[in-house]
Amino acid sequence: MVEVPSPASQAADQPDVWTVGRLLTWTTEWLAGRGSESPRLDAEVLLAAVRGCPRIMLYTAFDEPVSDEQRSRFRDLVRRRGGGEPVAYLVGNREFFSLAFEVTPATLIPRPETEGLVIRVLDLWKQRAPVAETGPRILDVGTGSGAIGVTLATRLAEATVLATDQSEAAVAVAAANAKRHGVADRVTLAVSDLLDHPATAGPWDYIVSNPPYVREDEFDSLPPDVRLHEPREALVAGPTGCELIARLLPQAAERLAPGGWLLIEVGPATAAAAERLVAETQGLITEPTLPDAAGLPRIIQARRADAAGV
Fold first, then answer.
1. Are 306 and 258 in contact (CB under 8 A)?
2. Between β-strands 214-215 and 256-265, what pairing exists: parallel, antiparallel or unpaired?
């Protein structure tokens, strides 16, 4: 068990009062020594959660003392973080596209790379909106916490969204997030293995997905906080990493509206194989793969021919 020393165990010549600033400094050093890649951020997020305030408010409270009760709760969270538990699970939420999303061990923790899917749909709709007769119809496959579908609903007031996941627990979390952000009336949730549910029949203007794409031989090389705590079934696709993508492509081709787009997040190690699968799928026109902020291939793109066959 990872132990976090209590104030009483600190050197006698240190001040007796544990202020916000002092607690953050000590915790940052302690977490850094246990392999955290972002020890200061981890410490701030955990302390803000304990104090029930936005993280930025800590900067105006550096000299404020932290109560014994808060310090005890904080110490427990820090101990668990030192043992490898993800911060997002410890505090129960993660920011995605400037929105706070509830997350649990039943869902993946949303990551910045996935925001690229949202940005691409917004860009595509901006081009189409002036001539569109209705709002966009969006299908979010493998929604997890609902980050993609719910975010798109908040950014596109005229959109209707169906978000699916094979995990009932994940769908419950996504439903809570849709309600939290005031879009429950436009985001429908369904438990479904990819597009097997009747509600996915479409047609859809955009089908977006962040499916499992880790190869089985990659799993052991994932960071410990991911490998040991996030749901394996939402990470690992199989030996090639493209097993679910291979199943999704023909289903999506049948359900896209003419001119509709399919956007799939992939890992750099599986991008080339996924591109080949798209090229082999009847009814889909291959579009260039989009890179992430690090320049790595991240979003596979395809579209269905429009009514004119283009």
1. yes
2. unpaired
Q: Are the CB atoms for 220 and 81 separated by under 8 Å? A: no
Query: 105-304, superfamily in CATH?
Result: Vaccinia Virus protein VP39 (3.40.50.150)
Residue from 42, 77, 74, 45 nearest 58 by CA = 45
Q: What residue ranges of the chain are covered by domains with CATH 1.10.8.10?
A: 7-84
Q: Across residues 105-120, what is the average pLDDT?
A: 96
Q: How many whole angstroms separate alpha carbon 174 and alpha carbon 28?
A: 32
Query: Taking the chain, what is the end-to-end CA distance rounded to the nearest angstrom?
Result: 61
Write the pLDDT tens digit of every residue in 262-288: 999 999 999 999 999 999 999 999 999
CA gap 298, 294 in Å, rounded:
10
pLDDT tens track for 181-191 = 999 999 999 99
Contact 217, 150 (CB under 8 A): no
